[in-house]
Each structure stands twice: as C-alpha cells, then as structure tokens.
From TrEMBL:
It comes from Pseudomonas versuta. This is RND transporter. Keywords: Cell outer membrane, Lipoprotein, Membrane, Palmitate, Signal, Transmembrane, Transmembrane beta strand. Residues 1-24 form the signal peptide. Belongs to the outer membrane factor (OMF) (TC 1.B.17) family. It comes from the Bacteria.
Length: 476
C-alpha cells in the first residue's frame, strides 16, 4: 500500500516539474504611434484655447451648470445601458473563474445507497445470495482528477480570459463615457432650443407691435390694407415657428429622462424653466497625446483584444502536444452500513492518463492558423483605433476653435441687425419707408438671432466632442 502512494507521489512531482513550459508568444503591449505634442490650433484673443495640462475627469462641472452636473451624476448611476454593461462585466468575470478552475484539481465526494436483488439466472450475484434475496449496498468515497498543464494551455486560456474581462471592463467604460456625453449633448441642445424659443417669442412681440402700429396708420390714412396683411402674415409666420421648438424641447426632455431611466415627462417640471446654454470660458486641458491610449476606452479595449488573440495562439499550439491527466479515487463499499468504514471495505485507484493527437486531418493546424490570423487582425484593428482616435481629437479641436469664430461673427451680426430694426421702425413710423423694409430687416434679425443661439450651443457641443475624443469622464 505504501509503495503505491510513493509511486503516485513521485509521478505527481515529476509532472509538476515539467509544467513550467508555456507555448506561444508572450504578449508585448503595443506602443501607439502618436505625436509628442498636439498640433497647435490657432486661437484668437478672448477665445478658449486648448492647453496641454491634465484632463479633468469631471469635465462637465467646468461648464458651471449645477443642473447639468446633477443630471450627469444621476445618469452614471441609473442608466440602463451602464447597468447592462456592468452585468456583462460580471458575466465575463464568472467565465474567467470557470476557466481558472482548470488550474486546480477537481475533487468530488460521493455517498450512495441502494437496495437491490439480482437475477437467479444471471452470470453472478456479488451479494453471494444467488439472487434469492435482496441486499443492501453502501458506497462512499472521494475522486480527484487534474490535468497537468505541461505546455501552458490552461495558463494561456486564463490569460485569454483575463483579456476578455478587460475588454468587458473597457466596454463598460465606453458606455459610461457615451452616457455622459449624450447627457451633456441633450442638455445643451435643450437649453439651446429653449433659447431659440425665447428669441421667437421676442420677435413675435415685435411683430405684434408692428401689426398694431400698421392698423393705427391705416386709420390715419398713412398705411394701406396691404401692409396690414403683410404685418399679420409676419405674425402668423413667427407664431408657426414656436410649435416645432416646443416639440423639440419636449423630445429632448424625454431623451434625458430615458438616459436617467425615468418615465416620459418625468423631468418636464424640472427642466421646463429656460436657462442659458452652458458655456465654457476657461482654457481647455487636453493632456498629452501619449496619454490618449490610457484614457480612450476603445484603445484600451483594442489592446486587450490583441492580448487575448496572442494568448489564444499558445492555446492552439498546446493542442499539438500530449495531455496528461492524473486521477484517483479512494472509497469504501459495504453491504452493511456498520461495515462501511472498516479497513476491509476500502477501495482505491490511482494513475496517470495520457492522450496524444496522432491524426487530426489538419484540424489543429487550421486552428493555429486561425488564431494567428486573428492576432494579425487585432493588431491592425489596434493601429486603426489609435489613428481614428487621433483624427477625432484633431477634428474636435478644429471644430471648437472654428465654432468660437463663427459665434463671434454672429454676435456682431445680431447687434447690427438689432440696430437696423430699431432704425427701420422709426422710419416706418415717420412714413419714410414702407412695411416691406420692416419685414426684411426683422426676418434678417430673427435669422441671425437663431443662428447665434445655434452657434453658441455648437461651441459647447464641440467642447463636449473634444472631451469625448480625449476619453475623459469614465475615470471620475
């Protein structure tokens, strides 16, 4: 008995001593090809410009809008997409735990009882009763099995599972960033729509006053019915602009409600009061290009995908080599419960088993080529992701600066249009110009004011795009 255990122990130690070999290439984290510094973007005096200081992980607070910050904070906690991504991450971790269990021996315990009666005409009756009466049978014991990871197949599979967990985690980071960005975008668009509605209502009051003035002039014989009709048409045309803006506001409020996992119109009272479009006036910290790969979830995910593909090559190569499994059992069997623990009721079995792939018809070679191809694809995808990220950052910075210049020009256009409207109203009241001039100038003012509101919002939206391209936000 002692010699059996000694042989088994020697075999186990021998196999363990061989288990240090790991096939396949070791993963080397790629170095992204990025510039040392961002390309300078021209910035006019008084404009917010980009500076290479650390990116604020809570950049939405920089807009100075408490309601926006509160919405982002709630969305990060309540959003269903964030919760789904967190659930998928936990599933990935559970799969990893299943795979990692192969590194340890599997131990099973068993205890069984049966009452049987064998055939009197059968070959044998282990009970010794020749099938003439029933008998009890008690079985109990432990079974153990363990695959010796000689070629690192299990280690590579755990490594690939770790990469899958990392991919799921970066997916969650990406969803968090997307939800933050969408919340900020919808909120900015809502405030811009409310400001546009306020502009329409202001112009509507001006048009109504012009209509009243025209009617008075008709009574005095200064104006004609044609001018009254033109003034009334102007009022109706401006009134028609309010309904689409009101619809747009309601839809944006519902969009924010959905992001925060609330029912439709749940936030109508909270967001119905018009506020200014959130604006960012300070310099924008954008960090260094070399930091982009650590902030962007898509780049981090692409790196993890490449890591998993590299580890899978080692798994495919290990399938070419023998698998050795150590198994054993130790138990007791007796026909009486009182004899179950006796030394004579013992039973045991120990020994290694080996399987060797002799002929697979090219299946293993095909599997290896497939994994090598997937690694090449993942490497290309990583470089593509880095390049796309760099382009997105550069495009967002250019759009932010261009938006500020357009906004400044529209501010001047609104000021000139307002001055022109005041002048033409005076001239119309004096009878020196007809109402067509008033209509023309007011339409120009309304168009410039609407464009200014849209441009102001676009500047803030462009800044949101800058931070989204930089990958800032999910770390907060």
């Amino acid at each position: 008995m002692k010699s059996v255990f000694l042989v088994c122990a020697v075999a186990c130690y021998s196999v363990l001593g061989l288990s240090g070999c790991v096939l396949g290439p070791d993963f080397q984290a790629p170095v992204p090809q990025l510039a040392e510094r961002w390309a300078p973007v021209a910035s006019e005096q008084g404009h917010s410009r980009t500076v290479e200081s650390a990116v604020d992980p809570r950049w939405w607070d920089s807009f100075g809008d408490a309601q926006l910050s509160a919405l982002v904070r709630e969305a990060r906690q309540s959003n269903f997409d964030v919760q789904l991504a967190a659930s998928r991450l936990e599933q990935s971790r559970a799969i990893r735990r299943q795979i990692a269990a192969d590194r340890l021996p599997a131990v099973d315990g068993s205890l069984a009882y049966s009452r049987s009666r064998n055939s009197q005409e059968g070959l044998n009756d282990p009970s010794g009763h020749s099938g003439k009466q029933a008998f009890n049978l008690w079985n109990g014991g432990l079974g153990i099995s363990w695959e010796a990871d000689l070629w690192g197949r299990v280690k590579r599979s755990v490594e690939a599972a770790d990469a899958s967990v990392q991919m799921a985690e970066e997916d969650r980071h990406g969803v968090q960033l997307l939800v933050i960005v969408q919340t900020a975008q919808h909120y900015i668009q809502l405030r811009a729509t409310q400001q546009a509605l306020a502009v329409v209502q202001q112009n509507l009051q001006i048009a109504r006053r012009s209509l009243e003035l025209t009617r008075l002039q008709v009574k005095e014989g200064v104006a004609t019915d044609l001018e009254v009709s033109e003034a009334a048409a102007q009022v109706a045309e401006i009134e028609a602009r309010t309904a689409p803006l009101q619809q747009r506001s309601a839809q944006l409020i519902n969009a924010l409600s959905l992001l925060l996992a609330r029912e439709p119109r749940a936030m109508a009272q909270q967001l119905s009061e018009p506020l200014a479009v959130p604006a960012f006036v300070a310099d924008v910290p954008v960090g260094l290009p070399s930091e982009l790969a650590q902030r962007r979830p898509d780049i981090r995910r692409a790196e993890a995908q490449l890591h998993g593909a590299t580890a899978s090559i080692g798994m495919a190569r290990a399938d070419f080599y023998p698998r050795i499994t150590l198994s054993g059992s130790l138990g007791f069997q007796a026909m009486q419960l009182s004899d179950l623990g006796s030394w004579g009721a013992r039973s045991f079995a120990f020994g290694p088993g080996m399987s060797v792939p002799l002929f697979e018809g090219g299946r293993l070679q095909g599997a290896l080529q497939l994994q090598e191809g997937r690694q090449q694809e993942a490497a290309i995808a990583y470089r593509q992701t880095v390049l796309r990220a760099w382009h997105e950052v550069d495009d967002a910075m250019v759009a932010y600066q261009a938006g500020q210049r357009r906004r400044d020009s529209l501010k001047q256009a609104v000021e000139h249009s307002q001055h022109a409207l005041d002048s033409v109203h005076q001239q119309y009241a004096q009878g020196t110009v007809d109402f067509l001039n008033v209509l023309t100038v007011q339409n120009v003012l309304l168009a410039n004011q609407a464009a200014l509101v849209e441009s102001t919002a676009q500047v803030s939206l462009s800044l949101v795009d800058v931070y989204a391209a930089l990958g800032g936000g999910w770390q907060g």
